[in-house]
Amino acid sequence: QVQLVESGGGVVQPGGSLRLSCTGFGFMFSNFVISWVRQAPGEGRELVAQISSGGGTTNYADSVKGRFAISRDNAKNTVYLQMNNLQAEDTARYYCRANQIGRPVYWGQGTQVTVSS
Prior knowledge:
Elements: E1 3-7, E2 10-12, E3 18-25, E4 33-39, E5 45-51, E6 58-60, E7 68-73, E8 78-83, E9 92-99, E10 106-107, E11 111-115
Parallel strand pairs: 2-11
Antiparallel strand pairs: 1-3, 3-8, 4-5, 4-9, 5-6, 7-8, 9-10, 9-11
């Protein structure tokens, strides 16, 4: 059964850090581009960061450049999102997405990140 499982969310003060993890099961994780997508209440989805299948190429939304870093360990079927200097506007539910041309797109259930003093 295909699954993407996110973890690492929580409540953090402004300026704090969190590291999210996304682990894949039931498919060839290392062949897929992995993205982190977030959605705040009442807002649309925003692509936050993306990493190529081999990890050599990364892309970031302008809103997180210089603060977030995406990485992957294909031996562990896991992608990470290191989030530093978190701000209130980063509050959202963060979803992991796996996609490969010609394959279905897989989504996780998400993990909540709340930045509040």
